[in-house]
Amino acid sequence: MYRRFLDERKRAGRFSRLLDVFRGPRDVAPSAEEVVIARASLESFGRLPPEQRALMLLVAVEGLSYGEAAEALGVPIGTVMSRLSRARKALRELTDNDVSPPSLRVLK
Q1: Which end of the chain is more exposed for a tag (fewer CB within 10 A), N or C?
Q2: pTM as predicted
Q3: Quick one: which of 75, 62, 79, 49 has its CA closest to 19?
């Protein structure tokens, strides 16, 4: 039970930025930095291939197990695990490389 709790906490922490985007408005207004990071993360998520994006939504957002996701998509569980691994790696690379400050315009 304790290991399951730890696994769930790790999973929630890993994708907390994505979950924040899908949860909607909060009581406190986000900072400009949080908005830029959230937009960059969402844009990076949108650049994933459709099958990886669907799998990430099922597992990370909906909280389905690998078996349930495999059944929902009609693919073997090994395919789910490899796609999810590739999706997480691609999202990490996209998010780590893309979070840049917004470009500034020169005003005269």
Answers
A1: C
A2: 0.56
A3: 62
